[in-house]
Amino acid sequence: MALYFPLHAANTLITPAVSPDSAPDDVLMMVREILPSITTKLLVAGITLHVSAGVLLRIVNNWNKPRRNRHRHLKISAEQDLSQDSIGLTGGISGYLFGLYKTFRIPPQVISGYILVPVLIYHLLIMKWLPNSISTEVDFASIKQLLSSKNRWWKWLGGLVPLAILLESGVYHIGSGLCRYFGVRKMTSRKKWSTAINLLTLVGFVSLIRLMKEDSTKLGPNQFESIFKKIRLLLHVN
């Protein structure tokens, strides 16, 4: 798991931005050779455990919140709570730019996790589970075909939109989580983390655009035709 995420992130976010031709598939094949065949199962198990623990922790925190508030309502403090639970990484754009930190009822890291779960399930569905069920594999050539498809539903709702949401929410969730894990509390350091997260997200969007602009007519039959056909059958859609 510790090896998978850095390799996968580098190959999906950075490599296509540098060279969208054959380099992403070359790295993908290398990663598949390095990692064991049960990587997907381990990944799903780890994500399930992470989500379950996060939901349970959220329930416990909400359960205890009124009790904490009753103890705190007599305390008057001129200092704003600058923890990630209160303002996220930097307190929004106003906090990042001007030091006017916005507080959030639900921490941005939690919100990004809520957003991430359904798009991650969809990602696994079309990239792993359905291809495995029809004995095929999805590579970057397939992604190029999906992102350049003439079918607008496939291209936008099936490809670009969920991939963009996955990219944005995933980079923020993991980046802010690492910031919390390493105990980064100083605001100047957190702003540097935020800058790195934003830059990595920007590079990821550049990668998506470059993949979308690739000529997919020379890549053979579109593998996603059979994948989305399977989805239509599962949903009983003609």
UniProtKB/TrEMBL annotation:
Gene3D superfamilies per record: Fumarate reductase/succinate dehydrogenase, transmembrane subunit
Keywords carried by this UniProt record: Membrane, Transmembrane, Transmembrane helix
GO cellular component term of the entry, any: mitochondrial outer membrane
Annotated InterPro entries: MCP1, MCP1_TM, SQR/QFR_C/D
Stretches assigned to the Mitochondrial adapter protein MCP1 transmembrane domain: 4-102, 118-212
The keyword tRNA-binding belongs to this UniProt entry's keyword annotation: no
PANTHER family: MDM10-COMPLEMENTING PROTEIN 1 (PTHR38409), MITOCHONDRIAL ADAPTER PROTEIN MCP1 (PTHR38409:SF1)
Protein name: YOR228Cp-like protein
Organism whose genome encodes this protein: Saccharomyces cerevisiae (strain AWRI1631) (Baker's yeast)
